[in-house]
Amino acid sequence: MINISSIGVLTQAPRFSAYVASKSALDSFTGCAASEFADNNIAFTTINMPLVLTAMIAPAKIYEYAPALEVDEAIDLIVDAIIHKKARVATGMGRVQQLIELLFPKFSEITNNATYRMFPDSEAAKGLPAPAAPPEATSEQIAMAALMKGVHF
User: Fold this and answer.
1) Phi-psi label, residue 50: left if phi above 0, alpha if psi -120 to 50, beta otherwise
2) Is 19 annotated as catalytic?
3) Contact, 96 vs 42, CB < 8 A?
4) Torsion over CA of 142, 150, 24 and 40, rounded to 10 degrees?
5) For 12, how many CA atoms within 13 A lie in the half-sphere containing its CB?
6) Short-list 106, 91, 80, CA closest to 6
7) Tens place of pLDDT per residue across the chain (153 aa)
8) pTM attached to this predicted model
9) CA distances, 138 to each of 78, 141, 145, 148 (Å)
10) Which of 19, 63, 65, 116 is an active site residue?
């Protein structure tokens, strides 16, 4: 059984608290079920999938600045789970962020908050009509995007 979870479970991603909470519950279910069915030779794998460049996220301009996997890279994570039957499949980025959260929780909270404030909610998220043109990226947003570009090892 393969559970497509989220990198947000490892990173405590701001702006997505309800989504991450539901994925965390599914992760816990997967871990418990794996223990219950281990003697029946049933494998359970959680994939902590990062953002993937799909048509679904294209309208959200904020994701133009976020590191994201290509669809083929996401498929590779799923194939890895099918072949190797690991308990968890995650990108290096997710594992590093999880480690930082574990060792330096306040630092993680502060940096997550800074990133959260750097990328404000869209007009649509506020219930307002979309502007005629998307807002220009700030120098801080561009710097963060450059810093995180391709970080999925």
Assistant:
1) beta
2) yes
3) no
4) 170
5) 17
6) 91
7) 999 999 999 988 888 899 999 999 999 999 999 999 999 999 999 999 998 989 888 777 667 767 789 999 999 999 999 999 999 999 988 899 899 999 999 999 998 898 888 877 777 778 888 777 777 778 887 777 766 654 443
8) 0.81
9) 35, 5, 11, 15
10) 19
Give the burial string for 10-19 (b: 16+ CB within 10 Å, else e): bbbbbeeeee
d(CA 95, CA 153): 10
Concatenated DSSP letters of 103-142: H-HHHHHHHHHHHHHHSPPPTTTTT-PPPSSPPPPPHHHH
Q: Quickly count: other Cβ atoms within 10 Å of residue 75's Cβ.
A: 12
Residue 24 φ/ψ, nearest 5 degrees: -65, -40
What tokens appear for 94 in the block? 């997710």
* Tokens describing residue 31: 């871990």
